[in-house]
Amino acid sequence: MSDTNQNQEEMDNIKEYGQTVLNNGNTDHQIHLLNIIGEIEGHECLPSTTKTTKYEHVLPQLAVIEDSDKIDGILLMLNTVGGDVESGLAIAEMVASIHKPSVSLVLGGSHSIGVPLAVSTDYSFIVPSGTMVIHPVRMSGTVIGAKQTYDYFKQMQDRILKFIESHSGAKQNRMEELMMNTDMMSKDLGTILVGEEAVKEGLINEVGGIHDAVNKLHELIAQRKNDSDK
User: Fold this and answer.
1) Catalytic site residue 112?
2) Confidence (pTM)
3) Which of 21, 126, 135, 151 can pair with 130 through a Cys bridge, CB separation 3.0 to 4.6 Å?
C-alpha cells in the first residue's frame, strides 16, 4: 500500500470510527488508539444528532487487534456519558481479555458504564478535571413492577461492580456506598469523582494526561517484549 493510500485509510478510520494507529519510529511500537466517546450505543440506533460509540464497530476491531502481529498495544481514550449496559460491559470484557498491553485515559468524563471501561485496561489515567459518575443501573422503556425485575437489576449491578473490583483497586462494598449516595446529586443517586478522587478510591491508577498515558504504554510494551525474549 502506498503512503498516500495508507494515510487516507488512517484518516477515514479516524473520521468513521475514531481509531488510528500510532507508530513511534524511535521505539518501533505500533499502538492502536481507540476512542470511546458520547453515548455507547446498544441494540437500538440512537438519533443521528447524538455522538455515539457503536459496539458493533468496536468488538470486531478489538478481535483484529488481538489477532494482529503488527499491533503492540492499545490506548483507550474515554469521554463518555455511559449508555447501554450490556454493550459497554461487552467492550470492557473484550479489552480486559486482550493479551497485549493496554492503557486508558479518562478525559472529560467516563460515567456510568464508562467506569468499567476505564478500569478494563492494564493501567489507567485520568486528567485532573476528568470525572467519573457512579450511580445505580437504570433501564428505559416499560418496566414490569415484579420481584424478578428488581432481582435482574441487582444481578446486573453486581456484575458491573464485580468487574470493577477485579480490574482496579476499588472495593465492591465501597462502590455500592458511592452508588447509593443521596447527598451529592439533587435529583439522583450516585457520586461524582473528579480527578484525584478517582485515584484515592482505587478506580484509577494515576492522574495524568496523554503524555503520561503514551509513555506508560510504551513502557508496558517494552517490558512485555523483554519478558518474551527471555
Assistant:
1) yes
2) 0.82
3) 126
